[in-house]
Each structure stands twice: as C-alpha cells, then as structure tokens.
C-alpha cells in the first residue's frame, strides 16, 4: 500500500515531506551549514530525507519557486514549514525534541555554549575555501582558538559540575554541537584534545549515546570531510570565484 | 492594568494594534523589572522589589552601536532600564578579560539576572523570552527566529561598514542597498501584506518587529529613500516608531547610539588591537 504513495509511482510529483512525515533537508551533498542540523536530528532519533542541490540551475529553480525565504539554503521542510536560517532551524528542532533545557536559564546557557561553538565551527567550515597560501596560517588559527578560547571553557564546565552533560545534567543541543566540533577539529588537528581530559571522557560518553553512535557509523546521513570536489561544487553552484 | 486601558482608549488605534500593545503592556506588568514602570503601577510590588534588588541589566561594550545595539533596542522596547559600562582603553578590556567575566574573551557582555551573559544571540533570545517578545509557542518562535536571522544578516553588512576604506565604503553602500531592496525588504513587505496585521508574527508585538525597525532605520541612514517601493514597510515603520517605549528610545538623550564615526573605529581598534584591514562583501 505504501508503494502506491511513493514518489516513484507518480513520476511528475516532487516528493513532499508530508508524504512521509519526515523532515526534508535541502542542501548540497556535503557538510557546510547543514551538518549541525543532521547531527541534531540524528541525536534526537529523528529520521529525515535529503534533497541534494547539485547544479546552479537547480538552486535558481528553487529560488524562483519561492521556497527559499531569503533565497538561501539550508532549507528544512518540517511540520508544514519551509524553514531557513540555520539557527532558527536548530532552535526549533532543539525545542521540539526537548534538547533545549528545562527553563529560560538553562536555555540561556545552551545558547551561549552553542554560539561559542558555532564561532569555532565557522572557522572550520570556511577552511576548505581558504586559498592554498593561507591554509597553514588558517589551520594554526583554528588550533589556537580551539585550545585557548573554546575547549578550555567546556573543560572547566565539565570539571566544575562533574556531570556527563554540559547543562542541567541531561543531553542537550549544546552537547551534540560540542561533540560535532570536537570531531571536526580533530580531523584537522588530531591531538587537539591532548590537554583536555574532561573533553576526552565527554567525547567517549557522547559517542556512545545510542542515536549518536548510530550516526557515527558508516552508512548514516553524516557527511564526510569536505574535499576538493566539494569545494568545486559549492563554487559552481553559488557562483563564487 | 487600568493605566494601560486608559492609554488604549486614548489612542485611536485598530483592534490588532491594541491587542499587540496590550500584550506589550502585560509584558511590562508581569515582568517585575519593568523599567518603564515608573509611569505604571506594578500590580506585583513584592516581585518588583526583589528584582530591583537584583538590579538593572548592565551592558559592557564600546560607546557605540556594534553588536550591542540590537540588545539596547530590545531592552528599550521591553521598557527595561539598563546601565552601561563603556570600554575606552586596552587596560580596561584586559582587566575585564582577567576577571573571567568574558566566557569566550569577547564582548558584548550583559550582566542580567545573576548571569554574565555573552554571545549577542543568546542575550537577545533571553531578553525576548523573558519579556514575552518571543511568540506564544514554538512555531511563532520559529518565525521570529527566521525573520530575525534575515535582519541580522542585513545588519551584519552594515556592522563592518565603519571599518572599511573610503573606496570600499562606496561599494558596500551599494551592496547593502541592493541586498536590502532585493532580498530582505521584499520578504517583510510580503509578510505584512499577506496577513494584513500590524506586527510580523502572531498579531502581537515581538522581537521580530523591533529588529526589523532597527534594520530599516540603519539602511535608511545609507539611502534615505530606500523604502520608496515598500508601502507596507513605510506604514510599519510609522506604527512601530510610535510605540511609547520605542518612541522614547528614538528621542535624543536615550541610550541609542549614533552612527559610528572615526573616533568609534579608533577606539575599537585600540581596545581590541584589531589593526588588520577589513574587506567589503
């Protein structure tokens, strides 16, 4: 019965998220700005579909179709909304799936931590697009910021309260975002956690949370580290030089 | 409550407008820290007293707009009085850094409700939620977050403007106006036209309205007739500017900061030791 309603049975109809009820992510087939959304949905145990933008023409068609509020991706179809703006999307998912703390003050802490981590991740995200001659300097900058500005903060928080999670003694958006950042920086700076025993333990514990463990296994929706092909694809789709 | 009702009766506004204003009014009443409350009698004197003990929010930043300005706007719109400590020297900044108050070694810093909050977005989210300017449920919050994300991106192009070379300033001015009129303003124009309500979300005054007004005024400073093809936004601007708390903030002598000048740029560069060149978009 389900087959009758699948998109392949009605070739002309674009697959709608409402048909499966799952959130549908529209982005390039790569990490970029969508990866934290994939992480958060996965951590919450929410299955989702992906619509990969592969050409400039496809993006232009999406823009003309009026689906992208500010003519940009990421875009996530969820609960009848076409959401854009990464932070808005993440906040909604966190709120919906109880990963946003129990009250305003916990939310404030989560927001502060997430924003700090996002600043670090922004550097990592932009790194593949750095010109060759600036890459070494950029990498040193990422390592410096990670080890002097961001990781010490979370090391201290975990040490001070001795709990497994950053906020309110339970899993939240902040924990998922921190794990993502740790792994992303480790890909660039393998020994980056060497001075951070709390973060090492955090990384192990978090990686064993069942939904996250599943996401970390091959075959999940997690995207690989960006390579030259990914960079070339992004440049061509977004008309960057 | 009675005073708000009297105000509503006195001002000739539409029903939706009154609903939105009443919502703001109730925000002021239910929030004990209603700074604008010196003109209103709080119905919760006990709570208000304990909040007064907790003190007003205190903002640590340069004496200028930068990333703190949206926070000033939002507190002001919510009728919350606040104090400011201005960073003027490197020594002051280093002292702040050493005190451990800056979680990620950065300003803005806002001391509020016993917390030393950093990260502009976290601060704004907290204020919006605390003062009932963040919608009534998750979906309204999602809309507000999306709209604020757009105006934040737009204002982000203006944030770096004072730091650009004269030549780059001209290029950036064109870029800002182009983005405002082709990407951002049309969205809000359409939202207002489609639902015909006075406020962007939920027929109620929210953070999204404050943020959009701030963005409109900033872009107008770059091109005064930028709203000429946006009648909904022109009306919106008039309406929101006449909300009492906002009207007060727009008057001379308020804590609103002027357009950044060379002195501001010099202070920021000196305090942050930020001497590198900033490129236009």
Q: Would you write up a description of this structure?
A:
The complex is a heterodimer of chains A (241) and B (281). Chain A is of the alpha+beta class. Helix content of chain A is 52%, strand content 7%. Chain A has 10 helices and 4 strands, in the order αβαβαββααααααα. A 4-stranded mixed β-sheet of chain A has the order 2-1-3-4, covered by helices on one side. In chain A, helix 2 packs parallel to helix 4. The radius of gyration of chain A is 19 Å and the shape is globular. The N terminus of chain B is likely disordered. Chain B has a 4-stranded mixed β-sheet, covered by helices on one side. Chains A and B meet through strand 4, helix 4, helix 5 and helix 6 of A and strand 4, helix 6, helix 7 and helix 8 of B.
Using the CA coordinates, give the radius of gyration of chain B. Answer: 19 Å
What is the average per-residue confidence, as pLDDT of chain A, rounded to a whole number? 92
Taking Cα atoms only, what radius of gyration of chain A do you get, to the nearest Å? Answer: 19 Å
Number of helices of chain A: 10
Question: What fraction of the residues of chain A are assigned to beta strands by DSSP?
Answer: 5-15%
Q: What general form of chain B does the structure show?
A: globular
> Which strand order spans the largest sheet of chain B, edge to edge or round the barrel?
2-1-3-4
Low-pLDDT runs of chain A: 1-18
Domain GST C-terminal (chain A): 103-227
EC number (chain A): 2.5.1.18
GO molecular function, one term (chain A): glutathione transferase activity
Pfam family, one (chain A): GST_C_3
């Amino acid at each position: 019965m389900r087959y009758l309603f699948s998109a392949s049975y009605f070739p002309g109809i674009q697959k709608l998220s409402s048909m499966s009820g799952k959130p549908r992510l529209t982005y390039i087939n790569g990490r970029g700005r969508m990866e934290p959304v994939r992480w958060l949905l996965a951590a919450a145990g929410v299955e989702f579909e992906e619509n990969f933008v592969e050409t400039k023409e496809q993006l232009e068609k999406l823009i003309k179709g009026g689906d992208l509020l500010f003519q940009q991706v990421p875009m996530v179809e969820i609960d009848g909304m076409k959401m854009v703006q990464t932070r808005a999307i993440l906040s909604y998912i966190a709120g919906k799936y109880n990963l946003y703390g129990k009250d305003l003050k916990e939310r404030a802490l989560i927001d502060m931590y997430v924003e700090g981590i996002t600043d670090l991740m922004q550097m990592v995200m932009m790194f593949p697009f750095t010109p060759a001659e600036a890459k070494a300097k950029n990498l040193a900058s990422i390592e410096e910021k990670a080890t002097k500005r961001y990781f010490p903060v979370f090391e201290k928080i975990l040490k001070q309260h001795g709990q497994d999670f950053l906020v309110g003694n339970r899993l939240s958006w902040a924990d998922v975002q921190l794990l993502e950042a740790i792994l992303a920086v480790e890909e660039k700076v393998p020994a980056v956690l060497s001075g951070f025993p709390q973060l090492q333990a955090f990384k192990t514990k978090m990686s064993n949370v069942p939904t996250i463990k599943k996401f970390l296994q091959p075959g999940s929706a997690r995207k690989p580290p960006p390579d030259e092909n990914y960079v070339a694809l992004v440049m061509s789709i977004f008309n960057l030089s | 409550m009675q005073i708000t009702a009297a105000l509503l009766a006195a001002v000739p506004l539409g029903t939706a407008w009154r609903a939105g204003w009443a919502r703001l009014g109730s925000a002021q009443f239910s929030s004990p820290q209603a700074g604008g409350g010196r003109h209103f009698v709080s119905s919760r004197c006990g709570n208000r007293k304990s909040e007064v003990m907790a003190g007003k929010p205190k903002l640590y930043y340069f004496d200028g707009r930068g990333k703190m300005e949206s926070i000033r706007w939002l507190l002001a719109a919510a009728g919350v009085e606040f104090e400011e400590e201005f960073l003027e020297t490197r020594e002051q900044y280093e002292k702040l850094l050493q005190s451990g108050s800056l979680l990620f070694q950065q300003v803005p810093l806002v001391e509020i409700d016993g917390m030393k909050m950093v990260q502009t977005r976290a601060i704004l989210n907290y204020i919006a939620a605390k003062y009932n300017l963040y919608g009534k449920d998750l979906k309204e919050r999602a809309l507000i977050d999306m709209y604020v994300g757009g105006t934040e991106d737009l204002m982000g192009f203006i944030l770096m403007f004072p730091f650009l070379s004269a030549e780059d300033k001209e290029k950036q001015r064109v870029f800002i106006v182009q983005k405002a009129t082709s990407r951002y303003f049309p969205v809000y124009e359409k939202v207002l036209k489609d639902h015909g309500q006075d406020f962007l979300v939920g027929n109620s005054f929210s953070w999204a309205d404050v943020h959009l007004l701030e963005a409109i005024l900033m872009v107008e400073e770059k091109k005064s007739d930028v709203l000429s093809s946006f009648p909904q936004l022109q009306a919106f601007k008039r309406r929101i500017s006449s909300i009492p708390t906002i009207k007060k903030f727009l008057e001379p002598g308020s804590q609103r900061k002027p357009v950044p000048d060379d002195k501001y740029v010099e202070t920021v560069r000196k305090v942050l030791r930020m001497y590198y060149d900033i490129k236009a978009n």
